[in-house]
Amino acid sequence: FQELLQTSHWTLSAPQWLWGLCILPIFFLVQKYSLVNFHPLQKGLSLILRILILCLLIVSLAGFSSKRFNRQIVLVVAVDVSPSITDAALSQIEAEVASLVKSKREKDRLLVVSFAQSVKLVPFETNGGVKFRRHGKENGTNMESVLRFAKGLYKQGFTPRLLFYSDGKETSGNILGSIASNKTPHMKYFTRFVSVKRRPEVL
């Protein structure tokens, strides 16, 4: 679960400079056919030094850098409770969510929602865990509605994260289209597919 709570990432501002690494084989050819009468160890060290200098130069030109966000994280865990997800799978997810609650930093926020056709906020039990319940007679899955619901849970100054537990069988909505058009800064999405024996849903 550590990736869910990650607040830094690596960037390249000018990745086209990485093509410069293609000239590395030239160094080996020059070394092989060089007429300089150096000791093999000395020639090897010289080659390594040249390659290292070239790599550092290319990385510098490519603008390689690490950006770290010191803000708090809001992680929304969205769990599919439609008929295609068995009770056994939901019990396993409950255990994983409990583990995630224990591993989060104190300053971060973790919210849990369940969804089928509609989305509901799941309250924490007194022991800090969660208990998932079906949404009545709802027989479909709308993951797009989760994204709209989650936007209302994120607060300014927090880094947003959204984790889906689902079998990926979306019967309504367009989650991929919504993700593509979503402009929330630093938003990251994660999915844990639930592989279970499917029960029929209404398309």
How is the largest sheet built, in terms of strand order? 5-4-3-6-7
Oligomer class? single chain
Write down how many β-strands occur, each being a DSSP E stretch of 2 or more residues. Answer: 7
Largest sheet: 5 strands, mixed
Please characterize this protein's 3D structure.
- It is a single chain.
- The protein has 203 residues and is α/β, with parallel strands linked by helices.
- Helix content is 32%, strand content 22%.
- The protein has five helices and seven strands, in the order E-H-H-E-E-H-E-E-H-E-H-E.
- It has helices spanning 24-33, 40-61, 87-103, 143-151, 175-181; strands at 8-12, 64-68, 72-80, 109-115, 119-121, 158-166, 188-193.
- The strands form two sheets. A five-stranded mixed β-sheet has the order 5-4-3-6-7. The protein has a two-stranded antiparallel ribbon with strand order 1-2.
- The mean pLDDT is 82.
Structure at a glance:
By secondary structure, the chain is α/β, with parallel strands linked by helices.
Please supply descriptive tags for the structure shown above:
two-stranded antiparallel sheet, elongated, alpha/beta, 5-stranded mixed beta sheet, 203 residues
Strand-helix topology:
Elements: E1 8-12, H1 24-33, H2 40-61, E2 64-68, E3 72-80, H3 87-103, E4 109-115, E5 119-121, H4 143-151, E6 158-166, H5 175-181, E7 188-193
Parallel strand pairs: 3-4, 3-6, 6-7
Antiparallel strand pairs: 1-2, 4-5
